[in-house]
Write a structure and sequence with these properties.
alpha/beta; Lysozyme-like
């Protein structure tokens, strides 16, 4: 069954919701125009567990892992996360601004959080992403394109592309040709 997004609430129907306080309204007149693909694992290189939820909701315990101390107090979020098994979690309504891109620029326009939707894939730059993740990502992108006519398949990019030199995700392990084929 295709994914469906309620444009009144900005929420995807029938998916796990863990709403983050790390978001706010988009600037007046801003609409989603860009989809940014990210990669994340917490601690780095480890999959599963509650840590991404905890990070995006401001509840990451700094004493649970040495890496967590280095990101203590960060107020970040993403609109959605696709786990290794393809499971989808939504953190921020797509109509709102998630805090995923940081200092960023796309086609000469700065502040990508204002006009983008951030989708995290559980993974690392070096390990191949799973088939289930590509299938869920393609389904989510199709649902977003149907819900928000300001988006297009041509405006799907990586975090590394909007923050070069600062970010590397989703990394060389991400197969852009595979995603484009799934969206064709």
């Amino acid at each position: 069954m295709p994914l469906d997004i309620d444009t009144a609430t900005g929420l995807a129907r029938g998916v796990r919701q863990v709403l983050s306080p790390h978001c706010d309204a988009r600037p007046a007149g801003s609409a989603p125009e860009l989809i940014v693909v990210h990669g994340i694992s917490l601690p780095p290189g480890e999959f599963g567990g509650p840590w991404i939820d905890a990070l995006f909701t401001g509840r990451l315990p700094p004493d649970r892992d040495p890496y967590f101390r280095t990101i203590e107090g960060m107020r970040v979020s993403s609109h959605a996360l696709i786990a290794r098994d393809g499971g989808l979690t939504q953190y921020v309504p797509f109509s709102q601004r998630a805090w995923h891109a940081g200092a960023s620029e796309y086609c000469g326009r700065a502040g990508c959080n204002d006009f983008s939707i951030g989708i995290e894939l559980e993974g690392t730059d070096e390990l191949p992403y799973e088939s289930a993740q590509y299938a869920t990502l393609a389904g989510l992108v199709r649902a977003l394109l149907a819900a928000y006519p300001t988006l297009s398949r041509e405006r799907v990019t990586g975090h590394s592309d909007i923050a070069p030199g600062r970010k590397t995700d989703p990394g060389p392990a991400f197969d852009w040709a595979r995603l484009r084929a799934l969206l064709a």
